[in-house]
Here is the input.
Amino acid sequence: MEHIDGEIAAPPRLPAGEDRISALSSDLLIHILLKLRDAAAAARTSRLSRHWRRLWALLPELYFHPATGSQGICASLESHEAPVLRRLAVEVIDAVPESLAAWLLIAAPCLSGDLQLINEVGQNQTEDDAAEGAPLELPCFENATAIRLDLGYLALALPPLGVFAGLADLFLACVDLRGPCVLGDVVSSPRCPALRKLTVHGPRGLANFSNHSDSLLEMELKNLHPDDALHLGNFTIRSESLLQIQLIDLPGMQQLTVFAPALRVLNVVYCFVHRLTYNQPVANISAPQLTSLGWNEAYDPSSTQFGNMENLKWLGTYHFLVYGHDHHRLQNSFCLRLIWRFELIRSLRLMLVYLLDITNKQYLMEDITWLPDITCLSLDVQPRGHSFGPSVFHVLRICTGVRKLIFTLTGASSHGETQTACPSGCVCDQPPNWKTQELVLNCLQEVIVHELRGTEHEAALIKRLHDWATVLEKMTIAFHRSVPESKAKEFFQMLQSFSRPEIHMKVPRFA
Here is the structure.
């Protein structure tokens, strides 16, 4: 703008009817509309100019929020003119299957990219309400590359026919699976030949009795009521293409079978350990290329077969109770049996958990007599206010060759309890030799601490780590989000007071 007598001149007025935005290319205008991430808002821009009238119908990505409604989604999809629909993202609240089925049928032949459907359960509806009635029948999306369904336990029937030829990523959360087609059949190679990543989180109705060995007569002989069928199930995956599988909280899974020659990553979390105990959980995993295994489950080599895992580099196990009774040793054996299966492994994740009340409990750490030869150790500790120095010391003196230590304080459990200090005279600081006994970690070069809360127990351990790690080069400290900035800075300054000059200490929060 020009300056006139020291003042800023007003911008020149456009000639009547001139619209510089509409003068932009259609490609650029479509790019602007995509930034709205709201198909309804993009459609409303047609009122701005005649040139904008049909631009929204050319969007390669469509986002619908709950206010749009099923009819609006159907109308938009029927009017869509883009040569390729590469993303369809829909959010709904307390949806019923009929309202979703209408637009899913329209979208199935059009989508050549990602489908995301999230159904939130409102305040006036429960998860059981969502699962009532006829299920949502999912059509076959032959050209979709990714499908993400989080249905708030809405009943879902998978398509019995058709091939998801382009599907590379499938995510299912909070779905109530209904027959006749079972999940294992759909995700295996004949139906999903290009599937690379599979995530299943908290489904219902996983049980598959079409190929389960127990008939109703056999169930009667085992004194099982037919209703218990919902708690039994086989999940079988046979895939030539899968690279990653993540299974979290699968109620009803009694047997897991995976044949995946290309699989690299397998994580199975809380799918067996809290289930009915009339049969031993069974798993048969054939994945010779597996490099990462997270098995947060019961493990018994007589019923859990992993086959050849000579390429495994990372292992995560079920948690280990630091204090407990004799019967807790069986639970700890889930962790130890799997760890002791390996003599050499690059990275190990070990979870140490303290009970809230450890009075009159046995110290169980002595059961860990050896660990594989590892270079990276991830220690997740849930101390519940107790001193965890002795347990960490016990682990580190067994694996003195570790080069990198990742230490995470998981705080309170997920059952609503709060983090509190242990009572006076608690036995958690026993045995006390960890404070005085020498330990040489002459390979440890890097320490990363997550979720630090600034307690005395944490300070005591970090100080000892500085003493033990004679070649330590780098320490990164990340505080828990609940720690005030003033307290975090004060704690960090205290740590710097005993840190050696050659150690680079970093706090990402203040970086």
